[in-house]
Amino acid sequence: MEAMREPLPATIRITGYKSHAKEILHCLKEKYFKEVQALEVDGQKIEAPQALSWYPDELAWHTNLSRKILRKSPLLEKFHQFLVSETESGNISRQEAVSMIPPLLLKIEPHHKILDMCAAPGSKTAQLIEMLHSDMDVPFPEGFVIANDVDNKRCYLLVHQAKRLNSPCIMVVNHDASAIPWLQVARDGKRDALFYDRILCDVPCSGDGTMRKNIDVWKKWTTSNSLHLHGLQLRIAVRGVEQLAVGGRMVYSTCSLNPVEDEAVIASLLEKSEGALELVDAAEDLPGLKWMPGVTSWKLMTKEGQWFSNWSEVPESRHTQIRPTMFPPTDPEKLKAMKLERCMRILPHHQNTGGFFVAVLMKKAPMPWNRRHPKVRPARPSCSLETRTADDPVDDPAPAEPPMAEPERDGEEERTPSETPTVDPDAGEQTEEPASKKNGGVCGPPPSKKMKLFGFKEDPFVFLTEDDPVFPPIQTFYDLSPDFPKLNVLTRTHEGKKRHLYMVSKELRNVLLNNSERIKIINTGVKVWSRNQDSEPFGCAFRLAQEGIYTLFPYIRARIVNIGVEDVKVLLTQENPFLSKLSDDAHAQAKKLDMGSIVLRYQPDTNNPDAPQCPIELCGWRGKTSIRAFVPRNERFHYLRMVGVEVFHKQGRRADEASSEAPEGAAEDGAGEAVAEGQEGPGRGENGADSNGTGGRWKKLQLIWAQGSFSYFGEH
User: What span, in angstroms and rounded, lies between the C-alpha atoms of 459 and 384?
Assistant: First the structure.
């Protein structure tokens, strides 16, 4: 409790899959950490930030700086701006230390199909995406992440988090996790139920472990919070293990230390599974992490202070609030076999963190009520997802949702799901079984009225057809390699001009095409091309988008200009530098290209250890006599820091205030770039594009070159 009364330390995590994670780590250790540790703020001496001992590769750090001090102290403004800028670029995540634990325990590999059941606000989802992309040389990992949240508005927060990572392997959906639809995929000409290799089940909880950062918990916490949440938590966990593949892992976690929300849910889940689930001993998975074993006995207390040790003590008048699953198992042998001590309780005073509970479950066999796939109505043809191929059948009967445990209801005894019409997955034939009993579980998908969806109406996801006239000019202009997966390109409109083109992985395309009527998709795909405002003179109607460049670059064989460190500095600090400002080699390459979108590529120079030791790809534009980089503001700052330029800006416009629809010739989200002497001014310049739009509304900046004392100001 003494630790709970102290402010929570600030923790940051470096995005692990980015090839320049080492560069960011070097910048943090050699510059910012050294600057802050000598400071004293409000009488508090700032300690040197420390790496979290249990997080791999020194990619997570904590300091005794509270979030309040970090935001408000003028002495820490530079460090704070660095964190904000790098966070918006997706290179750093500010995330509570204990929140980083569940994704690590899932042991993600690039081929895993992952479901994040209660994903918002998305910090753990970001970790899952990073682990999928552990090999940066593979633009499309075989696996994917489906991130779900029940709250439509929080889904958009989730989209914002996921967008920072620019992955084609993430899909955000909006459903109640306790009844999330059973998806299907096409395999070998047939449709099959989708089972996930890994599931993160970070359920809604009372949050008593978060009172170091959520002050309201001190005022609002009561014992009844856990009693109200237990049923929902159990239903979500049951739905998760139903959709988990045999041999797969599910991590159940809460930011509560109340056994009713923790061990009680796990014990009930293990009991329902009849041996199909096993608690995994994760003691060796995170060396350096201190934790307490799960408890095997606990009591319940009502809001009025009345204690109960077991279900038999609960008066009938309380049966609607208190359920048998909230108590420990009464059979000592059964309790011992569950091995609840394998659950992990993270306590705040052990490593100066929040309170947290986590349990790792392995599925050894199908759930007893769900040992066969169900047979249900064929799916209706999709009206919003087009372009089906031979691999995307529409005539096969579609397996719908296997039955789930009936939610506990007030005043009712717990029900066991009944048998339903099924398909034997081993026999490959559909076998009708007796109809479910009237008082049994849910059979087949729920009636359509229960599937009513709320929230904003989303634009459709429309894949390009094999013969779409939009694509051949793009393929020719950028000389895309023959193995480019053009069927994975989609747009968000049925009619009119396609303004943006996005890409998803092959596996996510399969999910999208076969489930458009089943799930409410909020967002998916990474933007790879945007339409020029005036496409006639430029050879191609679409320019490259920076957020998708790492996905596209392996397939692009033309319109590439190789640049050096000094070229990077010129391109990112000047608005429209003349071609002559580039190095001789880069200048010669650029002169050979026609006007239009280009890739500016920096390759590491092993002979110059001070230069970035990772490749950098930037989107650019070749004008008649000038050249420019199309890079969002925060990414611009990030790359400048990598090449040794310290960036410190005042009154800089927030990135989300800048329109993402920048006119051609204006930097995307580019508010805040400095203007150097001798560059082309605003207005319709030689690039033939209007630069009075988003990129032309300049804010004051100060850029200080690390190599010397030179500084300049640009204001428009």
Answer: 9
Structure-token pair, residue 469: 């006239």
Q: Which residues contact 584 (CB under 8 A, 6 or more apart)?
A: none
**pTM recorded for the entire structure:** 0.80
- The residue whose two tokens read 């391109």 is 571
The response to whether 176 counts as a known ligand-binding position is yes
119 labelled ligand-binding: yes
Report which of 529, 151, 527, 186 is spatially closest to residue 382, judged by C-alpha positions. Answer: 186
Residue in 380, 347, 342 with CA at minimum distance from that of residue 362: 342
Q: What is the pLDDT of residue 516?
A: 84
What span, in angstroms and rounded, lies between the C-alpha atoms of 297 and 263?
9
Q: What is the pLDDT of residues 287-314, one digit of tens each?
A: 999 999 999 999 999 989 999 999 999 9
Residue 262 annotated as binding site: no
**Triad 512, 514, 517: Cα angle to 5°:** 85
Per the listing, tokens 């506990």 go with: 408
Report the alpha-carbon distance of residue 207 to residue 356 in Å, rounded: 9
The response to whether 123 counts as a known ligand-binding position is yes
Query: Nearest to residue 445, comparing CAs of 384, 393, 375, 392?
Result: 375
Nearest to 75 by CA among 39, 48, 32, 45: 39
Pairing of strands 196-202, 244-254: parallel
CB atoms within 10 A of CB 381: 11
CA 249 to each of CA 15, 127, 489, 679: distance values in angstroms, whole numbers, following the listed order: 23, 16, 32, 56
Residue 288 · residue 97 · CB < 8 Å: no
User: In this structure, what token pair is assigned to residue 260?
Assistant: 């009713």
Q: Which helix (H) or strand (E) holds 584?
A: helix 584-591
> Looking at the annotation, which residues are catalytic?
255
Does 149 appear as a known binding residue? Answer: yes
Q: Residue range 247-260: average pLDDT?
A: 97
Kindly report the three-state secondary structure assignment for every residue of 623-676.
CCCEEEECCCHHHHHHHHHHCCEEEEECCCCCHHHCCCCCCCCCCCCCCCCCCC
User: How far, CA to CA in Å, does 526 sit from each of 176, 314, 489, 492, 662?
Assistant: 25, 54, 10, 12, 17
Cα 571 from Cα 555, distance rounded (Å):
24
- 196 φ, ψ to 5°? -95, 140
